[in-house]
Write a structure and sequence with these properties.
20% strand; elongated; alpha/beta; Alpha/beta_knot_MTases (chains A, B); 60s Ribosomal Protein L30, Chain: A; homodimer; Alpha/beta knot; 7-stranded parallel β-sheet; 9 helices; 5-stranded mixed β-sheet; 281 residues
């Protein structure tokens, strides 16, 4: 059992310091900490697949009974404060009454989460994704389709930014990720990790649907406007997601979802349990 | 050629009335009008595939030269106003300097955009989608994969809401859509339109990847929490998108994108132009 919850009534209580001025701190950073919001995400933070530890948990008192089981094994302190107190602390209205502070710890090396040959491998590479919603959504899709790792270049934003975690539905807390090492590019990294680089681009010729799925794949996606840089496109295998004529436009995270689904299916890594009904079409 | 642009300097100018108090009007509605933001979306509104007509266009003067070609054939008045005036009119900062008011016109009948048998048909049904981002993103995917129509139940929000249009990348302006008629349910509608109803649900047994693609399909998706109602699931063919074990969670618009891609591919309606490179995997 973790410690008994402590009730806090003063928004100025120093124990709640990491929860203060939440939006300002989103911009300036949290010195190795991040914020988790909501029950689903908190359960992932505290669960067996979490890559991070909780530093503290802040709940509205009415949320405590429903979460006591999830929190039981966690050694972090649990603070109970009315939603009005939580809102005064954070600086905006708290509706769900579930917050936590997590600790980042050290960053992973890019090679660490990628299984070595001859195991199959599925890695998502995000290039220049400066939108937190897109990064969060891409992580959600990576986790849903069982990617081994998400790699991000220096321009892509932080998966542990508050909004990224929320949009990822907590996937950012369980999905291994790493930064592209300084001085590395996607092609050299793919060579180092023994992955075939697939560069997704609307301008590519080869359609995803005709691809012989590689057993070890690095799926590289860039931003919707500029797309991937010419060197990456030239050195990788450019792949196009076939679309209808006249509206050749997919959100980058959705494109990642479709690409991950196709490659994961081809690699046989998706859940195939269940009886296939063979009724009339 | 349309009329010459008229310069407006007074935020109180009555010609700009439809652009005032934009966020408040998002909530109360616009009496048969909608707002279009940004160049890509304006070009779709004015283009050959648009389902709607523009009532007026409001541009920052520096945007006029780049858009004069797109606006040339449009009979609606074009107003030029500095971004500071545009911001004063709308009530929030206007960065891109491109706005327009569109006219909804009459709503389509649900049957109108669905080609009759024996033509193949691909229709997306959205059930209870109360989030404007999800509706917009689903429209973007429907247009990208060439769906004939998007049908929405009474609970789903308006595809012509300002944010829905923006998130759809303008797809809401070209993608035919209609409301589920009052007193109809998805199953009766599918029967009327001679479509096979496929109900997407994480709890379904039959995986999407093993499905013999029906030539005429209605893909029904519900919200992430409650999902589809039991009657729809019981009467339709429930389909599951296979995922990795342990994180069985996709955003509803992403799930729609993956489902649309698979069915559109199976129906042979996607662009297959281009030479397939057959190099080593």
């Amino acid at each position: 059992m973790g410690p008994a919850p402590e009730t806090v009534t003063d928004p100025g209580d120093p124990r709640l310091d990491p929860y203060t001025r939440m939006r300002e701190r989103d911009l300036v950073g949290r010195a190795g900490r991040f914020v988790v919001e909501g029950e689903v995400t908190l359960r992932l933070l505290l669960g067996p697949r979490s890559r991070f530890r909780a530093e503290s948990i802040l709940l509205a008192p009415e949320r405590w009974p429903g979460l006591a089981d999830a929190v039981a094994a966690c050694p972090a302190p649990v603070y109970l404060a009315a939603k009005a107190v939580m809102s005064a602390v954070t600086g905006f209205p708290i509706h769900r009454g579930v917050l936590a502070i997590g600790v980042r710890g050290g960053e992973l090396d890019a090679a660490a989460p990628v299984p070595p040959r001859p195991a199959p491998a599925l890695v998502l590479g995000l290039a220049g994704l400066t939108n937190h919603d897109n990064v969060g959504a891409a992580f959600r899709n990576a986790a849903a389709f069982g990617a081994d790792a998400v790699l991000l270049d220096a321009e892509s934003c932080d998966p542990l930014y508050r909004k990224s975690i929320r949009v990822s539905a907590g996937a950012a807390l369980i999905q291994p990720f790493a930064r592209l090492p300084a001085g590395q590019d996607w092609l050299r990294l793919a060579q180092t990790l023994d992955l075939q680089p697939l560069a997704f681009s609307p301008g590519a010729v080869e359609p995803l649907d005709a691809l012989a799925v590689p057993a070890r794949a690095l799926l590289i996606l860039g931003t919707e406007g500029p797309g991937l840089d010419p060197a990456t496109l030239a050195g990788a295998r450019p792949i196009r997601i076939p679309m209808a004529a006249g509206f050749d436009s997919l959100n980058v995270a959705t494109a990642a979802g479709i690409a991950l689904h196709a490659i994961a299916r081809g690699q046989g890594r998706l859940d195939r349990a269940g009886t296939v009904r063979t009724g009339p079409a």
